[in-house]
Every structure is written in structure tokens, then in C-alpha cells.
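Q: I'm building a small set of examples for a reading group on sequence design. Run inverse folding on the following structure and report the sequence directly after it, with nothing in between.
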């Protein structure tokens, strides 16, 4: 069994257009949530979200590529380029032949779907672009990354709502650990901030109309975001032999299903997934110093996740730091776990614990050290990233410093 390490990271999200900007924003507790700038926003009840700032697609892609790449694919490619560049890996020979890509997304090409619905139903057009299907399909981003870097190994897309990224990274981790692939590109991407996408989420009545305040008694729901996070995973031995800069080691992964309700979270399912990840990592719960929580800011999710943490960690819960960076970058749905993994790496590598901003008042159903409002300097050896999705899909990762 191979040890698996992360040697490259890339992102574009509401807190920054690369990893450096993102980590600076997290460390300073900046908020990327604000008024939405999309067509027909006046028809929405929810008018806030976390959009990527200052994005110019022509700075990254030519016109032919733009005609083929949905916004979520563009985000994924930008993040992948940064990650591969940081890793220093050259994908050729056997590395090209057997390495692959696993990406998570919940909705795929939502912008393409919406734009073409408008063209057909609102503008009365009878034809659409011949590449609408390959542009909107959920595996588009995965396929284009595979083609850009000539990766011919295991390559597929995972779609498990809010747990998509953690599932993708976890599956890639298992492939490298088992020897199925020498290296993998993994992460997630989402671009659901369209009129239709937001209107659909409005219907669930889980959205806040002013801010995302996870774990606070005054919390009123989630704020939707967009963006991507992508990582390069490879064996520890290979990374050391080529003198790579190791960001962190992935040591455990667990996934399970609640099998109970399509939207209501389960303490039992969440606790089982955390316990499974610790068992896979072969460490005791007392070794964990920080948890990046799923922490959506909804009444049901936050109290359920807190109960699950207490169930697993018992008295050690009082020693844990547990924060939700969704308070800053919003909920990126299928891309959220990947961006949140950056906060885990920052905790391990830099000793900076990202805060839960917007925290206003204590909720006794969320009795945790949520690192309220300001980042904290603290040394941690092992961390956890939680992802608990609609449909009862749970995926938990355990990382350690190297």
C-alpha cells in the first residue's frame, strides 16, 4: 500500500483566483459573499451569493475553447493548471498512460443549460449550437483536463451533490494507495449561480438572504457559491524521489449513506463516516486537532453535524477546533470540499486555522470551538474534512502533516 501525498493545489473561487489569494483571504477572515450580479436577479428572492471576482474568460481561453467550455469546465481547467504547475509533474510515458482524473460536480454545465433554454423558449430560436451536449455534460471538465494533460488512466466524474469533491478526492486517494494509478488529478468544480439554479435552491427554503453564519444561533441558511479546487495526488515515495514539495498526506477516507431521507441529515450516518475515516487512517480520535466542518449554516445541518462530532470524539470534542469556511466562500456544492481542503492544508502546513466568520451568538446545540470570526495560530498534526450531502451521501477525509 502506497502512502499518498498532495504535491499540487489549484483553485479559483470567491475568495481568490489562485491558492495564494485564497489562503490569504481565509487567514484574514474575508467574506466573498455579496450582492449577485446575474441576469434577472430582480426576480429572485435571494439576491446574495459568492461569485468569482474579476473573472475574464478570454485571459485563459481562446474563442474556440470558450465555445466548448462551460463556466464550470473553465474553473476546473484553471485550477488544474495551477495544481499541475505547482506539483512539477510531467505527465509523459507511463505516468501519462496510467494516471487519471476524478472530479466532482453536482450540476455540470448549468450555464449552458440555462443559456440554451433562454434561446429556445424566450428568444424563439429553433436550433442550438451542435456542441451543447458535450459542453453541458457533467464529465466535460474531467474530459478536458484528461485531454489537456494527456492522462489516459482512470478518469470519471462523481456527482453526489455537496459531497462530490470529497468523494472524488477520496476515490483518487484509494487508486494511488492501491497502486492502480501512479498519480491522479482530483477535486471538484461548480458554477450554479444562474437564475434557474438559484431559483431551484430558493424552493428548498434553506438559503439565507443576508449572510452565512454557521453554528451561530442566529443562522438563517446557506449562501451559494461557485468555483473549483483541484489537487495532484501521488505516492509518497515518488514525491520524495523527485524532490517534490509535499503539501500534506492523505491518510484516511470513508464514505457511506444515511439511507434515511433525501434532505434531512443523519447524526448516525455522519458519525459512522467520521469513525470510518479514522479507522482507515489507523489513528485515534484524540490525534485530530482541527475539523473543517460541512457547516452549511442551516438549522438542521449544523446541529446534526455537531451531535455527530460529539458522538465520535466524546470529551476530546472540547479540545477540537471546528470551523466552516462556507461562511467566507459560500457553498460551492460539488466544488465545496475541494476548496475546503485548502483550509485543511493551511492548518497543517502553516499552522493557521481558518475562522467561522459571521458568528454572532452561541447555540447550545452547537457546543463547539468554532474559531469564531478570526483565524487562529495553532499547531495541528492531523485534520478532518467533512462532507455530508443531500441524499444522505457522506464522505470524510483525514490528512496529516509531513
Amino acid at each position: 500500500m502506497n502512502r499518498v501525498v498532495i504535491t499540487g493545489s489549484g483553485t479559483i473561487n470567491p475568495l481568490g483566483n489562485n491558492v495564494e489569494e485564497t489562503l490569504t483571504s481565509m487567514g484574514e477572515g474575508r467574506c466573498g459573499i455579496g450582492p449577485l450580479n446575474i441576469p434577472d436577479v430582480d426576480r429572485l428572492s435571494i439576491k446574495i451569493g459568492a461569485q468569482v471576482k474579476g473573472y475574464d474568460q478570454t485571459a485563459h481561453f481562446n474563442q474556440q475553447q470558450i465555445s466548448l467550455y462551460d463556466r464550470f469546465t473553465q474553473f476546473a481547467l484553471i485550477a488544474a493548471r495551477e495544481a499541475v504547475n505547482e506539483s512539477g509533474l510531467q505527465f509523459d510515458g507511463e505516468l501519462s498512460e496510467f494516471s487519471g482524473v476524478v472530479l466532482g460536480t453536482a450540476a455540470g454545465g448549468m450555464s449552458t443549460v440555462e443559456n440554451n433554454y433562454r434561446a429556445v423558449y424566450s428568444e424563439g430560436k429553433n436550433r442550438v449550437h451542435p456542441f451543447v451536449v458535450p459542453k453541458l455534460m457533467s464529465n466535460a471538465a474531467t474530459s478536458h483536463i484528461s485531454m489537456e494533460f494527456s492522462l489516459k488512466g482512470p478518469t470519471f466524474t462523481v456527482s453526489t451533490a455537496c459531497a462530490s469533491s470529497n468523494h472524488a478526492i477520496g476515490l483518487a486517494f484509494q487508486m494511488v494507495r492501491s497502486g492502480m494509478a501512479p498519480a491522479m488529478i482530483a477535486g471538484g468544480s461548480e458554477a450554479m449561480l444562474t437564475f434557474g439554479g438559484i431559483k431551484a435552491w430558493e424552493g428548498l427554503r434553506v438559503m439565507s438572504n443576508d449572510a452565512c453564519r454557521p453554528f451561530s444561533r442566529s443562522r438563517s441558511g446557506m449562501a451559494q457559491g461557485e468555483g473549483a479546487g483541484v489537487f495532484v495526488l501521488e505516492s509518497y515515495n515518488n514525491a520524495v524521489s523527485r524532490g517534490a514539495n509535499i503539501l500534506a498526506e492523505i491518510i484516511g477516507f470513508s464514505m457511506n449513506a444515511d439511507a434515511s431521507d433525501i434532505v434531512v441529515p443523519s447524526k448516525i450516518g455522519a458519525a459512522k463516516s467520521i469513525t470510518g475515516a479514522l479507522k482507515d487512517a489507523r489513528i485515534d480520535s484524540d490525534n485530530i486537532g482541527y475539523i473543517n466542518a460541512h457547516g452549511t449554516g442551516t438549522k438542521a445541518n449544523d446541529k446534526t453535524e455537531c451531535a455527530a462530532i460529539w458522538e465520535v470524539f466524546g470529551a476530546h470534542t472540547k479540545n477540537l477546533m471546528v470551523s466552516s469556511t462556507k461562511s467566507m466562500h459560500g457553498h460551492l456544492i460539488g466544488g465545496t470540499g475541494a476548496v475546503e481542503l485548502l483550509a485543511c492544508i493551511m492548518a497543517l502546513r502553516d499552522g493557521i486555522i481558518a475562522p467561522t466568520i459571521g458568528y454572532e451568538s452561541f447555540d447550545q446545540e452547537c457546543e463547539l470551538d468554532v474559531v469564531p470570526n478570526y483565524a487562529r495560530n495553532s499547531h495541528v498534526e492531523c485534520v478532518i474534512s467533512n462532507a455530508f450531502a443531500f441524499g444522505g451521501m457522506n464522505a470524510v477525509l483525514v490528512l496529516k502533516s509531513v
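The longest strand covers residues 248-257.
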